[in-house]
């Protein structure tokens, strides 16, 4: 029987990042909205200042701040109303000493003014005069040209995944087409003689395919493309042919099942024969997920995930999702964790990293992480869970009341 060369999770990640990102992704130019969730292939540099002109951020009067010094409720400063700046038009009037010009939120600041007095601090008097009841500081209630984005600066680096706010800054700069990478294409193949499609009625010993659907869902949530390659029986030739087809059409292929040490477990045999550099690891000090196998053949990567539905999902979440979604394991915003208090003691075996499923509940001082019962074959335990809690490699468990980080699904 083949023995696993079990690596730690850290080692497995290190091995995968040697090859990730895989080379050869095409660049495509897309209109702004279509680029949401895509990864920029090139940095974007601002050609213009945003805002393109200094503008008021309150409805009121553009003034010279110094003119308002000393203004009080009981002793207003009286300024001459020199005109107004209409929205969306250039400021045609200049603010001279002792003068005020009416502005609205977003209108262009007239030359000569260095602050805005909000309308609530003023009163219009007869004969084109305005009383100011409060002093303003220079720069008050305006945004200077280029204060948001300065022309010439890099607003978004290459490799950045575009979020709604990123589309916003691009729109503000007049960038309506961006160069992004094609999405990662991920082929998904279930294996096992006992696995049947979900629309079929299982005979004795048969089970419906869960993993194709959980994995495809996880892949799509990462913004990648998922294609199902059906169910391969435990047959060397058939399995090899399906994997090869999936590899041609995708960057990454995910298999589930057949990664353990059983006599019919062909996956490793097939992966070993696909090309160089070959198998990166077979076995991770992880629970669930120990029989995970990874290989690289040329510029393609193949992950053999455990057959148990929970294990396949957990391994995807901790090993693959960060790469597909953020290109690395150390993207801080990618962690998506919440702090919670563990509701009961959980045990673990030192020497492997344990991932337990937890449900979040409202506790007295924040979230409570309640471990969800059920083994790694039970998909319903994932349905009940909101996230995962890691028990570190050398710990024997975590006691009730421990502050834990819950990685949300
Ligand atoms: N002697 C040992 N036995 C096992 C070990 C071990 O180290 N030594 N590891 C156990 C662990 S842990 C896991 S996890 C499983 C994983 O085994 P495989 O990856 O080889 O998966 P299979 O044996 O093919 O399947 C396991 C289980 O999952 C069901 N399955 C598989 N694919 C699907 C699918 N697409 N949809 C739904 N369910 C699926 C399959 O029917 C089995 O019940 O091995 C342990 N054994
Ligand atoms: O480690 Mo297996 O992947 O328990 O379920």
Q: Could you give a short description of this structure?
A:
By secondary structure, this protein is α/β, with parallel strands linked by helices. The protein has 8 helices and 28 strands.
Written account of the structure:
The protein has 409 residues and is α/β, with parallel strands linked by helices. It has 4 domains: 9-25 and 182-333, 3-Layer(aba) Sandwich (Molybdenum Cofactor Biosythetic Enzyme, Chain A); 27-50 and 150-181, Molybdopterin biosynthesis moea protein, domain 2 (Alpha-Beta Complex), CATH 3.90.105.10; 55-143, Molybdopterin biosynthesis moea protein, domain 3 (Molybdopterin biosynthesis moeA protein, domain 3), CATH 2.170.190; 336-408, Beta Barrel (Beta-clip), CATH 2.40.340. The chain is 19% helix and 32% strand. The protein has 8 helices and 28 strands. Strands 7-4-6-5-9-8 form a 6-stranded mixed sheet. The chain has a 6-stranded mixed sheet with strand order 16-13-17-21-20-18, with helices on both faces. A hairpin with a 2-residue loop joins β24 (353-363) and β25 (366-371). α4 (211-221) runs parallel beside α7 (309-326). Bound molecules: ligand LQZAQKY5 and molybdate ion (MOO).
